Amino acid sequence: AVYMTSFELGLNVSSSRDVSAEWWQEKRREHEKNNAWSKMKEWPRLADNMKLTEWDFADVSKVLEKVVKAHLMHALAKFKVVKQQLVSFEGSSSGRVNLGEVYASRYTKGFTLFDERKEFLRQLGALDESNPAEPRLIVPNYLLNPLNCVGPFSYYAVCPLNECEFLFSSLEHTIAQPQASVVQILDLVSNMPSDSIEAPRVLSAALRQKLEEVAEHHGGTVPLHGRLFRQWMHFAFPLECPYPYPADQVKPMNDLEFEDATGLAAYYSEDELRALTAAAADADKNPAARPLSCAESSEQCLAMWSPVEELVGIHRDDARSSQ
Question: CB–CB of 242/141 below 8 Å?
Answer without folding.
Answer: yes
